[in-house]
Amino acid sequence: MAGRLKDRVAVVVGAGSCGPGWGNGKAAAVLYAREGARVFCVDIDSKAAEETRDIIIKEGNMAASYTADVSRGNQVEAMVNACLSAFDRIDILHNNVGIVEHGGVVETTEDSWDHVLSVNLKSIFLTCKHVLPHMEKAGKGAVINISSTAGVRHMGTKYCSYTSTKAAIIQLTRDIAMNYARSGIRANTIIPGVIHTPLVEQFYGGYSQQERERMIAYRNDQIPMGRMGDAWDVAHASLFLVSDEARYITGTEIVVDGGLIAKCL
Ligand code: NAD
For the segment 138-184, what is each residue's pLDDT rounded down to a tens digit? Predict the structure, then answer.
C-alpha cells in the first residue's frame, strides 16, 4: 500500500541523527515522505536536518529543513509559522527529540535535571501547544510522541531524569488525546525498547572494537527476539499510527521492543 500519507504535511522534530546511520527520527521522516507526505525536518543541528531533507529530496519526495531548539517556546512558535509558510498546514506532528544524562537523584545536578526535562518533555508541551490549534482548525491531525521502555520499566541504568521524562510523555500524550478526541486529532506514544541507532553507537565510542562487540552481543542477548531493533522498526509503527489505518486509535501506546517488557514482567 503506497501513498498512505498523500497530501499530508508532517513535522518531524529531531529529524536528524546524532551520528552516521539511521536514527529513529530520520527513518520516520524518510518513511513519511516515501508514503507521500511533505516533511518539515526540524533539528537543533542544521546539518543533521539538512541531511535528512536531502535524502528525501534525492528519493524524489518533498521536504524542507529548519533549525530550532525545541525546548524554547519562541523558537517552536517560529518553527510552526515557518512550516505553515512553506507547506500551508500541519497534519502530523512527530516528537522524536530525546537526550540522556546519566545519574540517580543524588548525582544528578539541578541544571542537568532541568535541561533533560526541558529537552525531552517541555519540548513536547511546546510543539503541541503551538501545533494543536492549527490541527483543531483543520479538524484533523495525528501526534506521535517517542517515549522509551525506560519510562515504564527499570532498565538497569541510572538516568532518573531520562526515565522521568519518558514516563511523563505517556501520560501527557493520553491527556492530549482525551482533550482533542472530538476535534479529529489523535495522539499516541511509541515505546521503543533497545534500538540500534547512532545514539547507541555514541555510547560505545570510547571502547575498543572487541569491547564494543561484547557490549552489542550482551544487548542483543537481553532481548527475547535475540537482537536489538532498528530505526525502521520504530518508523513503521509510527507510520501505522499516523495513517488512516489507525483512525480509531488514540490515547494509547505501541511498544516496539522485541518482547523486552513482557520478559521483565
Ligand atoms: P538521535 O539522537 O540520533 O536523534 C535525535 C535528534 O534530535 C538529533 O539529531 C538531535 O540533534 C536532535 N535534538 C536534540 N536536542 C534537540 C533540541 N533541543 N531541539 C531540536 N532538536 C534536538 O536519536 P534517535 O535515534 O532519532 O532517537 C531518539 C529518540 O528515540 C529519543 O526520544 C530517545 O529517547 C528514543 N529512544 C531511543 C532508543 C534507542 O535505543 N536508540 C530507545 C528508546 C527510546
Answer: 999 999 999 999 999 999 999 999 999 999 999 999 999 999 999 99
pTM over 0.90: yes
Cβ of 99 less than 6 Å from ligand 1: yes
Q: If you measure from the C-alpha of residue 94 to the centroid of ligand 1, how many angstroms do you get, rounded to a whole number? A: 12
- Grid cell of 155 as nine digits: 532498565
CATH of range 9-195+230-257; options 3.40.50.720, 3.40.1080.10, 2.30.30.30, 3.30.465.10: 3.40.50.720
Q: Hey, whose CA ends up nearest to atom 14 of ligand 1?
A: 97
Whether 265 has a pLDDT exceeding 60, the answer reads no
Overall average pLDDT of the 242-247 stretch: 98
Q: Is 162 a catalytic residue?
A: yes
Separation of 96 CA from ligand 1 center, angstroms?
A: 6
The mean pLDDT value of the chain amounts to 96
- pLDDT, greater one: 2 or 162: 162
Cβ–ligand 1 contact at 151 (below 6 Å): no
